Write a sequence for this structure.
C-alpha cells in the first residue's frame, strides 16, 4: 500500500528565516513522482515543486528546494527567506501513472512578521 | 486561460439525498481527477477520467460515481448521502500527454450534509 506521512501538523517560521517541512512515504513501485502542493486559505491548491523519483538531483524552484532521500523514502521541503505569502497548508503527494496521487494530511505553515 | 471551474461552490444537503458536482477543466486538459478533502485526512483520491473513460479509482463505496463528457467536463455524484460525506470536493485537471504531471485544482465544492 502507498502512504504519505507528514508528521508536523503545524509549524511556524519568522519572516526571512528558513523552514523545513518533512514528508515520508512508502511505496513498492519504482516509477513515481513526488510533489509539494500549497493551499492558501480559501484559495486553490497550487504546485510548489516536483521531483521525479529516477532523478538523483534535488529539485529547486527559486526559494523552494527539496531534499529527496530515495532509500529513506523521505522528501522534505525547504523554504528559504520565508515571506508572509508563504503561509498556507502544504501537502506532500506521491503520484503514479494515470494521475493517481496520494496526499499527506498536510502541514499548516504560519509565517510571523 | 480560464482555470478549473467547479460548481456549485457551496451546498447543503440532508442525509439520504443525492448530489451532483460539476467540473470544467482547463481548455485542452483531458484528464480530470476528483479528491475528497476533510480536516486531518488530507486529500483522498476518488477517481480519474481520461477521454470519457475511468482509468483509476480510489477506495470509496459505490455511492460515489463519476463520468466525463466528450468536452472533458466531468461530474461526480454521491447518492444516499451520509454525515461523513461532508467535505470539500476538489477537481483537478492535467495535460493530456502527462500521466503524472502537475495537477491544476479548482476551488472546490464544499458539501455539508445535515
Amino acid at each position: 500500500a502507498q502512504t504519505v506521512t507528514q508528521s508536523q501538523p503545524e509549524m511556524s517560521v519568522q519572516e526571512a528565516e528558513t523552514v523545513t517541512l518533512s514528508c515520508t512515504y512508502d511505496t513498492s513501485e519504482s516509477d513515481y513522482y513526488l510533489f509539494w502542493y500549497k493551499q492558501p486559505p480559501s484559495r486553490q491548491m497550487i504546485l510548489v515543486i516536483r521531483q521525479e523519483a529516477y532523478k538523483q538531483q534535488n529539485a529547486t524552484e527559486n526559494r523552494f528546494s527539496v531534499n529527496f532521500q530515495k532509500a529513506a523514502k523521505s522528501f522534505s521541503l525547504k523554504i528559504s527567506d520565508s515571506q508572509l505569502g508563504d503561509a498556507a497548508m502544504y501537502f506532500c503527494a506521491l503520484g503514479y501513472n494515470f494521475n493517481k496521487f496520494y496526499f499527506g494530511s498536510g502541514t499548516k505553515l504560519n509565517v510571523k512578521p | 486561460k480560464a482555470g478549473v471551474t467547479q460548481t456549485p461552490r457551496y451546498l447543503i444537503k440532508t442525509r439520504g439525498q443525492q448530489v451532483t458536482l460539476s467540473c470544467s477543466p482547463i481548455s485542452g486538459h483531458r484528464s480530470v481527477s476528483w479528491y475528497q478533502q476533510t480536516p486531518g485526512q488530507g486529500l483522498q483520491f476518488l477517481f480519474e477520467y481520461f477521454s470519457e473513460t475511468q482509468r483509476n479509482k480510489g477506495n470509496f463505496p459505490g455511492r460515489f460515481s463519476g463520468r466525463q463528457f466528450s468536452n472533458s467536463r466531468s461530474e461526480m455524484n454521491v447518492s444516499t448521502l451520509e454525515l461523513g460525506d461532508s467535505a470539500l470536493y476538489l477537481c483537478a485537471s492535467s495535460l493530456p500527454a502527462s500521466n503524472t504531471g502537475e495537477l491544476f485544482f479548482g476551488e472546490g465544492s464544499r458539501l455539508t450534509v445535515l
Notes: Chain B touches chain A at residues 3-4, 31, 33, 35, 40-45, 48, 50, 55-56, 58, 90, 92, 94, 98-103, 105-107 (CB under 8 Å). Chain B has a mean pLDDT of 92.
